[in-house]
Amino acid sequence: MDPNFKDKKITAVQLFGDAKSRSGTCVSCVLKRKNGSLLVTSVKEGKDTYYQLKSSGESTVLILEDPPKTDNVFHMLEYEGYLLLFKTKFYLIKDGKAMFESPEKCKAKYSYGHNLNQGRGVQIIGSSLYFQTKSSNLIEYDLAAVLKSTDKSKLQGKIVYDEEVEDFCIGGDKAVFILTLDGGISQIANQKAVKTFQADNLQRGSQFSTIETCGSNLVTCGFSPKRNAKFYMVMSRDLKEVSMCEVQGIHGGVHSILTHSTADYVHILAACAFKSVDWLVFTNNALILIDSVEVTGRELYGLAWKEEGVEAIVYGEKEQMKSFKL
Length: 326
Prior knowledge:
mainly beta; Methylamine Dehydrogenase, Chain H; 7-stranded antiparallel beta sheet; 4-stranded antiparallel beta sheet; 2% helix; globular
């Protein structure tokens, strides 16, 4: 154990937000960096309500004058003052009005866990937006080009990869990596796999659900129902295994991963499909479990930083939105 983390634990687990913002199921939460506030979507009785939360948890309702009438939101982002909503389709919102509606339908479910794609399946790097479609394509939109376009009705996403994948992640240099359910990881270029890794016999039979960048590396996780164990793996960018950490899987596999890099460490937070959060650190080419804590008795949908590397928000089903400190 690294001496800097010898006695570290996840602490100060408590409800976050006020009664209004926690009144439904929290399906998305994102840090709005410019003013430090959080954007939250809560669903109650089939209706979406959007909130902006101060660091104290006090909420203000965001009014959408012409909200999309399709299914509930499963993810939300912000770009240059625009709200990006992912429902049945992708919507670009400005001043409460939908400025663009994608012709593609978004992927709302995935293979593992509670099957709902909340808080995952969408990434933005610079002005490039990536998301999976219902037909399993991974597509890219240049948001800067979308905003400049005078006729947005003809716009459509560029296909990045045209086969079904479980999850994907994008490096800062826009390198694309995809993950399959059985632990296959590939780098994609010109819609084809140019490098591929397959989990070895230790993880065979595991259900792989999520992949994320981890500093200059990648991190993924598989869950073995037979062994009731999770396998966290850090991979180099050329898809060689650097380190692995086996963790008891009492609450199933991982729904989503949140990372934060410092000069010496990468903090890895993983929201399991149900109940618990794992905190791992990657340092000196070693992946170490610091703590695992049950934060709720229900399904979890995702994580967001309240203060990067210090305090996070975990959110999920039926009035569950909690903060905790590292």
